[in-house]
Structures are given as structure tokens and as C-alpha cells.
Write the C-alpha cells for this entry.
Amino acid sequence: MFQSYSMQVYFRQRWKDDRLSFYLPNITSFTLSNKFINNIWKPNSYFINGRRSKQHNLTVPNAFIRLRYDGSIYMSVRLTVNARCPMVLSRYPMDRVVCPLYIGSFGYTTRDLVYRWENQVDIDPGVTLSQFELGRIEQQHITRKGRYGDLSILQVYIHMSRAVGFFIIQTYVPCYLIVCLSWVSFWINRDGAQARVVLGVTTILTTSAIGITVREGLPRVPYPTALDVFLIMCIVYQMAAFIEYAAVNYFTKLMPLEGGADDDDDEADNLIKPGSKLKLVSVEEEKPEQECQTLIHSYARRLEEKYTQKWAAKIQNCSDFLYTFLQCIVGSADYRQQRTELADPEAGNSVSAIDMVSRVVFPVTFGLVNLCYWLIYFHLDMS
């Protein structure tokens, strides 16, 4: 329902034509056939801002005509009316809508007839709308200048407020969760570039997809709606989280690798200095059988030591894993303190100061911006 609305109404009119007065004993009124309406004078009432209307004919024409002895005619018709309703969607989906319905005569001026409200416009208490809540109804009578004289017009204003609960469930809550998900990157190691990039791109694309889906049902208005502002705000924070990692990667100094194979190479290089002389002391001559036996024993000993160390390492790793897992499940404060003391604060995988600040700055500022967002649009809605 945008820029137009549809409703089903019982359109009742009453007018008096002295030419149809009669006198019959014990009869004050009687019902006429629907065909009779084509043979009498009618006010030619129509809906001025209507786009189209339809009279119900199930299972017979839903029309009722009664004639009284003094010439008064009462006519009731069941119609479905589709009328124009100008909407300003700048506060969508927290907007209030006032849909008018104008009733006038097609061809007659105030010299011929004048419209008046006889009773208040009533709405069935059981009527509910999926996206709106019905408010008050105003009805007026005005006179408007026409080309051939003054025109008598009846006005009805139906006040409605949009039910924002649907949009909170379908749009606001998912976007809030996606923004919070983008902040998980602040707790991912800064060396995990792939994980942080994938998380940032995924959250941005998901929010963009939600925005495109929401805009599909809206008319193409040239101004941003309240929902557009919210989606842009979410995307900005997700982009900021993405850029934050770029800043972490840029301002973080590359840490030197710990001593390893290079140190061994340096030590090996230092064993022989340039210009030093090597002296061959002696060479023992071994028999082929003795040499082969020595090699076999040496290889067997190395193989045994290798597998012994391998299984010992596996058992130790399994034991360490079970111990670590148990401490994490229990939530041991002593274990956490021990890990903190053993950690090298200057190691390459330490937590970035930018990440630590972002863990606080992003949620706090996002909460403040959202508070301002809801207060501003709530105030506009009330005003």
C-alpha cells in the first residue's frame, strides 16, 4: 500500500424527490428493484480522488433502495474503492499516514444539491491491517469553486500509523546482529588476514542485500527514508571495521623472527674463519665389513631415537591439549594469569593497541548514534 489504498465500504445516500411522494393506506415505504434506480433522478455521487471502484455482485447486485411516502429515497451500495493517498516516506517505516476520501457530485453544483453528513463514519471493530494501525477518522464538508459554480464536497480523513514491529523483526534486528558480527574481527589475530577480510566483506554484502530487498517494495522516491539512513549507518560501521584492520596492518611493525636455523648457520660459518689453515691429523683405515656393520648400528639407533621422540611428542601434545581444554572449560583464572605471564608482549602475534581501542569505541559510538537515531525519528513522529 503506497500512494494508494483500497477499502470495502457500504456507500449510503439519502435524498428527497417530491415527485416520488405517494399515499397508500397502511404503507409508508417499500423496497424497489435495482432496475428502478435507472428511471429516477440521482445525485451522481462519485469519489473525486478515486482511481477505480467496483460494485459487488455476489450472488446478486449488492444494492438496496427504499422509497418513503414523502419522496425520500434511501440507497445503500456495497463497493470496493481504490483511492489515491499521497504519502511522504521520509520517516518510513516510522511514519504516520493520513489517507483522504473526497465525495462529490459529477455535474451538479450547490444550486442543485448540497451534501451533508448524517451520521459518523464507522469502521468495523474487527478490521485489522497487517502493516498499519487504524487511528481516528475526521469528516468535513467543504465548498469548492468550480468552473460553473460552487461544488459541495464531503471529506473523510483516515489516520493510520505504520506498525514498525514487522520491520524490527525483518530488518533492524538482523542488521544489528550483522554489525555486531563485524566487530568479531577485533578479536581475531592480526595475522589472520584472510579471516578478517572474509568477515568484513561478508557483513557488508549481507547488509547491502537486505537494503536492496527492502527497497524493492517501495516507490522510487528521490529522498532517503529513515530505513535508508539506518542501513547506511550500519554499512558505514562495517566499512570502518574493515578499514580498521587496514590501519592495524599498516601501523603494526613487523616483528623479527626468533632464533632458529639461521643461528645454526651462523655458528657453522664461525667455525672456519677466513685465512685459517686446516691440518689433517690422521685417517684410520677400516675394513669394509666393519664399516658396514657400524653404519647399520648407527642407522638403527637413529631410527629408534626418532620414533621414540615422535611418540613422546605426540603423547605430550595430547596431554597439553587436554590440560588446556580442561582449564578453558573450567575457566581457571590461575591458568589465564599463567598464560598472560608467559606471553611475550612484544611478540608478532600480540594484540594490537588499535584493536583494543576499537573493541570499546565501536560499540559505544554505535550505541550513541542509534540512540540519537531513534530519538530524532521518534520526536519527528510525535510532532
Remarks:
- Confidence is low (pLDDT under 50) at residues 253-273, 278-284.
